[in-house]
Amino acid sequence: MMLKKTRLTRQEPELDITSFMSLMIVLVPVLLMMMVFSHITILELKLPSDIKELSAAPNSELKNLELLIGEKQLALYYPQGALLKNIPATKDGKHDYKLLVQALKEVKFLLNEQGIEKKDINLLLPANTQYQTIITVMDSVRSYETVVAASLVDAELFPDVSLLDAPQDLLAQMNQDEEAQ
Fold this sequence. Notes:
Elements: H1 18-37, H2 51-56, E1 66-69, E2 73-77, E3 83-88, H3 97-113, E4 120-125, H4 131-142, E5 143-148, E6 151-156, E7 160-165, H5 168-180
Parallel strand pairs: 1-4, 4-7
Antiparallel strand pairs: 1-2, 2-3, 5-6
Helix pairs in contact: 3-4
């Protein structure tokens, strides 16, 4: 018996991209959605007014709204150096941000009634202030959520935030007040 040699003809293989296309159909929307969730927010800070101008001006002309951040309480000053409101910590020892927003809304309302358009606030920070505390306070003083026409919107409070070192005399006074309580 004689075997016949059959010659196999080589054919070019077809390129099958259906599995790749299926992968892309699923992968592209997932990656696009992840882009939205990984959005980084940037907080803009204003530089405080020139310190030399602040020290040269008489106290009656300084109309700065200031928020002193203590370990157990917050203190709101307006005009500069005049205590407007002490905001004690909550029962669990944390800062009361809801009461802070309420106090700032009252201040904003009173200033608007007097015809004063104020958008800036100075945060007076001790050296040992935690980063998360600073960010939470900044978010609280910038805006608050409110319902307008059946929609939840952010209403503006004091969006121009400046960071300053807390004066030692105010810190000492706050510490005495905390010890007295």
